[in-house]
Amino acid sequence: MTDETGHLETGRRVAAMIYGAMMGSVLLYAVAVEVVNLSQAPFSGFAGTALDPMVRYALWGVALVQVMLILVVRRTLLAKSPGPAPGASIAKLITVAIVTAGLAEIPAILGLVLFMVSGLRADFYALLTLSLALLATWFPRLESWREWAAEPPARG
Questions:
Q1: Would you tell me how many other CB atoms lie within 10 Å of the CB of residue 48?
Q2: Which of 79, 131, 132, 135 lies in disulfide reach of 107, CB 3.0 to 4.6 Å?
Q3: How many Cα atoms are found within 13 Å in the side-chain-facing hemisphere of 117?
Q4: Which residues fall within 8 angstroms of residue 105, CB to CB, at 6 or more apart?
């Protein structure tokens, strides 16, 4: 195993641990929803008034835009410049993994907002599922990191 491969594996392990912690925080939102739902039963939101449907649609729209935003941000951040140092490449991959996890977490946060404001538990779980799917889709995988590291840099 070369030194660069060892650094790549270490970097991927660090990114996976951070990613896993962020995935765990998303799952904790479900615990919070159930605690509030059980302690405030029947829970219809803290707002006290009906939620305007346009707010709900807007939050869903933002959640769905995250898929495209992740694709664009990843493509932009993963663009190779000529001659990056090996350590810089690993740092870039870790940064991309953390940014991706943060963007993938947004739908669950929006679902939590919908639940807290209006008690929309089904919306929360649907958006939580979207977040978990996004997190699973772009979980840092060593093989994809190796492929990216092996690609030649873009020429000018």
A1: 8
A2: 131
A3: 15
A4: 22, 25, 26, 131, 135
In the predicted model, is pLDDT for residue 85 greater than 70? no
Q: Which amino acid is at 74?
A: R
Count Cβ neighbours within 10 Å for each residue of 86-107 and write b for 16 or more, e otherwise: eeebbebbbebbbebbebbbbb
The dihedral formed by the CA atoms of 149, 70, 32 and 55, expressed in degrees to the nearest 10: 170
Listed residue (155, 24, 148, 132) closest to 95, CA to CA: 148
Q: In this predicted model, what pLDDT tens digit does every residue of 89-104 receive, in sequence order? A: 888 889 999 999 999 9
- Determine phi and psi for 131, rounding to 5 degrees: -60, -45
Contact 129, 20 (CB under 8 A): no
pLDDT in tens, 25-51: 999 999 999 999 999 988 888 887 788
Instruction: Please tell me the pTM assigned to this model.
Output: 0.86
Q: Are 128 and 26 in contact (CB under 8 A)?
A: yes
